[in-house]
Amino acid sequence: MSELLSVYEDFLKIEKQASANTVSSYLRDVHQFAAAMDGKGVTLIQVMPRDVEEYANSLVKRGKSPSTVTRSVASIKSLYSCLIRKGYVDQNPAKGVSSAKVERKLPQVLTGKEVELFLEQPECTDLKGYRDRAMLELLYATGIRVSELINLDVDDLNLPGGVLKCFSKGKERVIPLYPTAIRALSEYITDIRPQLVDSVDEAALFVNMNGERMSRQGFWKLIKHYQDKAGIQKDITPHTLRHSFAAHLLENGADLRSIQEMLGHADISSTQIYSRLINQKIKDVYKKAHPRA
Q1: pTM score, whole prediction
Q2: Angle made by CA atoms 13, 244, 252, in degrees to the nearest 5
Q3: Is 239 known to be catalytic?
Q4: Is 265 an active-site residue?
Q5: pLDDT, tens digit, for every residue of 23-36?
């Protein structure tokens, strides 16, 4: 059993090039499933559809949320898709197993005024202020993920061309930058970053105050600090700026395919959630404004 799980782990990391968070959550799900099957005296190769169905039902009975059950079933399906490709099994026992129905929540976005307020918070009076302003401007300008942001190198920026190269899951995408972001990044790279890095050989675009590559945790703290400072009641995360980037582009006339390309979504269905968001906003405006609504 441990051998099969190791095969799956390698599959996620090497072949699928999944993010660290995806690998962690999928492995956690399949390890829990494997342990449950082991408790029944069933090996992973012996698993039948009824075993997966019973396992999913047991999660529901234990009070797990619909999204947790759905993700667990998806993880099990992914495991067996891998094992089929590797020749360990012939069929996917999770195929056809109904996941818990989940109402996908619409993402929370900031209004244009809230974005402006948030981006104004870093005070360009010291090194940290200039760095933070450049990071936040870049995040909203491009909609990239926080993992992509902290993994950026200086060479990924082409400021004269006004674009950013972003590498994720083995693919490269090129995203334009608006003038304010270009100015903030230019000031940071020219005047601030050289004072922060310990070595001229440091490749990281954004570094902490010790001159080392910015960490995910460090950036989350930075986001929360400026949310509190701005007095914005919405719970702002790095993904909130990503959602806001996409929603504001769509709201101002960008097409879904272009937004999909910039966000790096493999499937257009992931991008279509922003259409639902805009439609809901229109409905809310109608209900508030129409005299007979």
Answers
A1: 0.66
A2: 125
A3: yes
A4: yes
A5: 999 999 999 999 99
